[in-house]
Amino acid sequence: MKRRKSGNKQYFTRMMGSKKKVHAFVRVKPTDDFAHEMIKYGDDKKSIDIHLKKDTRRGVVNNQQTDWSFRLDGVLHDASQDLVYETVAKDVVSQALDGYNGTIMCYGQTGAGKTYTMTGTTENYKHRGILPRALQQVFRLIQERPTHAITVRVSYLEIYNESLFDLLSTLPYVGASVTPMTIVENPEGIFIKGLSVHLTSQEEDAFSLLFEGETNRIIAAHTLNKNSSRSHCIFTIYLEAHSRTLSDEKYVTSKINLVDLAGSERLGKSGSEGRVLKEATYINKSLSFLEQAIIALGDQKRDHIPFRQCKLTHALKDSLGGNCNMVLVTNIYGEAAQLEETLSSLRFASRMKLVTTEPAINEKHNTERMVKNLEKELALLKRELALHNSLANRPLVTYDPMDEVQIAEINSQVRRYLEGTLEEIDIINLRQIQEVFNQFRVVLSQQEQEVESALRRKYTLIDKNDFATISAVQKAGLVDADGHLVGEADGQSFAFGIIPFSAKPGKKTKTKKTFKELSSSLRKEGLLSPVSTKVFDVVSTSKTQLVSSAKEGDVKDTLSRERETSSIEPSVSGSLKEESRPIRPSTPPPRPLAFEDFKNERGSEINRIFKENKSILNERKKRASETTQRINAIKREIDMTKESLNFQKSLREKQGEYENKGLMIIDEEEFLLILKLKDLKKQYRSEYQDLRDLRAEIQYCQRLVDQCRQRLLMEFDIWYNESFIIPEDVQAALRLGSSIRPGMVPGPRIVSLGEDDQDKFSQLQQTVLPEAPNSIAFINAKVKTEQKQNYMKTMMGLQHAPRK
To answer: Which parts of the chain are coiled coil (predicted)?
Structure first.
């Protein structure tokens, strides 16, 4: 959009889509005290009229407005959760898999049903809200698109008192962030730094993350709502779709923001006090800023949109009037006592309808696939070029990279050219010219190395920039006052005992010290090091000073002895570290943390066996469930085939039977039904036998899992008591081999892993599945969440329990 200025050109090209208005719906909370005289709906269920009686206390002249009419996209009164989702969210989620971003927001007064509309209740599968239904639709659409590889990631953000919190940070593999979360803008949109994003490959995993975040939300009670949400929550589903059939490097990404806003409230009606009053102040303030942003977006003449006034509007910057499909669900009361708040919510919905969005597909490019496509195109162009060369009678030219034999031949040509034995090098193609220049560089580098090695065999090189070494050399009397070595003529190189004939005789110098004395003096001052003898430029002798190396072996021996001495100290310190042992803590660690450490260390083998048996058990149960479904499907098909066969028989009896030599004559259709029924019965018997075998295996695996669980708990209890509870003197007695044996000291309590979620699921399966066959993932995730909560409560009780 033009009023959302950005310096990134690519951002504007993505936004060039067809403009559309934000869809706004109203959902009325069911009540027994509905104000029929004040609230009326249009015949098309897309308008709502509000009528207020005039206040007679204002006198005869009373200009009070009494009638309001609001035109929306739909009014949902006494609507079920299924109808709400079909009307509001189904199209948004469906288009998200095509690359369009989507935002669904619930707004309204506190207690009007926003959280019920967005999340629903976990106690009843039929009463689930928009969010779990959206997850189900996403995974169902993924199954219907086998030609695409689609990945799903989710995140759960909470904005509480203008602070950002990750509702999924309580997961064991996430942990709390040290730095506070911040909102960052980039050309692709808004990014929450520090917010964890979780990959989900199954519907059940997504539900588990949803229920985990719901347990961490902040709620409070006041007059209008016993379970009032005290924060704004944004559940985001990130989608990324790659084509499995096309080799195109393009792929699409999208995200669905499901926003559950905290409810606005009048402090006089809610009666909030203390912390709840502070929360209500922050909520009303952020909702006021949200309404200001919506008003600015609806005004086409406005250039500046106040998104940064609060964290809520800043986090929803790319969702409010951006390149996404946006839907607003306004929840209102139908009672006369809440009519003022209802009017305020309907005004917000009408202002939201003025906002325009530009939905566009979010396309990106896969660099790896792009490289592969370019390689294919390059190979094709090479073949076409070779074809053109052959048609034009040109000599054979290879455009492939040169191999080692060709490179060696070019290197030989370059050497012969430098030696003068080769007059010129024939030019074949551009790649050969580049390799010729490269071999010139290689030959030059080799010659430099040969010169350096020759100098090293005769001289020891000292860097002129090493002022500390030069100062020590001057003190030793080997360098004159001008900074040149004694005997050096006109800045040329110097060697002990050799003076150029062009050098003029001068004054006598001091008695020269030998190189061994010089090195010993340098070592005393701590100036001799491997860096001091580093060669910075071998070819340019004007930048280095050459010192005779007649006794260089003494220096090397001394340096090697120093290195050996310095290498002894780390080994000694390392041995001391190996001998040290971890100190036993004064207070025992929490049992949950100790249990995790036990499973990773001492009990890793038992835990591995337990997990393997559990995975085998789950796999057998899954196969049994699939086999049961196949048996039921075959049974239904057998019943249908029998009905069709009976119908054919009755039809044959009505039309008259035909016999040939005492045999009954039937038509082809009835004969095919008889064969089909025979095959179905055979399949039914085979599948039923497989099911019986699987049930026997499940019973055996279940017994193994129970034994492993008991063994794991028993071993952990023994390890915990012996590591943290049993005194040191008793431990010494254990090591000395007295009558006390490991496991004889009982623990105060036994950690319980809780009832197996598969067991609960098996119990619920018989009662729930006949009504809702798609509820398996939902119920399974609910069971796991309840199990985790019970486990945490048990561990908290064990920590606070008095010790004997």
So the answer is: 364-391, 674-711
Report CA 318 to chain centroid distance, whole Å: 20
What is the model's pLDDT at position 499? Answer: 42
Q: Give 149's strand partners.
A: 242
Residue 195 pLDDT exceeds 60:
yes
Where does the pLDDT of residue 763 fall: very low under 50, low under 70, confident under 90, or very high at 90 and above?
low
The partner residues of 356 in beta bridges, in order of sequence, read 21
Which has the closest alpha carbon to 256: 206, 307, 160, 326?
A: 326
Q: Which residue has the higher pLDDT, 53 or 537?
A: 53
Q: Which two tokens stand for residue 249?
A: 């490097």
Q: Which residues are annotated as a binding site for ATP?
A: 108-115
Residue at token pair 């039309």: 655
Does pTM surpass 0.85?
no
Which 3 state secondary structure label does DSSP give 24?
A: strand
First-to-final CA distance of the chain: 70
Tell me the two tokens of residue 138. 């996403």
- Burial pattern 136-174, b for ≥16 Cβ within 10 A else e, equals bbbbebbeeeeebebebbbbbbbbbbeebbbbbbeeeee
Whole-angstrom distance, CA of residue 197 vs CA of residue 171 = 12
Neighbouring residues of 190: CB distance < 8 A, sequence distance ≥ 6 = 183, 184, 314, 315, 316, 317, 318
Rounded distance between C-alpha atoms, residue 165 and residue 163, angstroms = 7
Query: For the segment 41-88, what is each residue's pLDDT rounded down to a tens digit?
Result: 888 888 898 888 776 666 666 666 778 889 999 999 888 999 999 999
Q: How many CB atoms lie within 10 A of CB 698?
A: 19
Nearest to 110 by CA among 214, 217, 227, 285: 227
Q: How far apart are CA 784 and CA 476, in angstroms?
A: 81
What 3 state SS string does 492-545 have? CCCECCECCCCCCCCCCCCCCCCHHHHHHHHHHHCCCCHHHHCCCCCCCHHHEE
* Contact of 328 with 25, CB cutoff 8 Å: yes
Task: State the DSSP string of 755-791.
Answer: S-HHHHHHHHHHHHTTT-TT-HHHHHHHHHHHHHHHH
Kindly report the backbone phi and psi dihedral angles of residue 603, in degrees, each rounded to the nearest multiple of 5, phi listed first: -95, 20
Structural domains of the chain ordered from first start: 15-52+65-365 (3.40.850.10), 367-459 (no CATH), 589-655+664-732 (1.10.287)
- Could you give the C-alpha distances from 203 to 133, 144, 774, in angstroms and in order? 11, 14, 11
Average pLDDT, the chain: 75
d(C-alpha 429, C-alpha 394), whole Å: 13
**Residue positions forming the annotated binding site:** 108-115
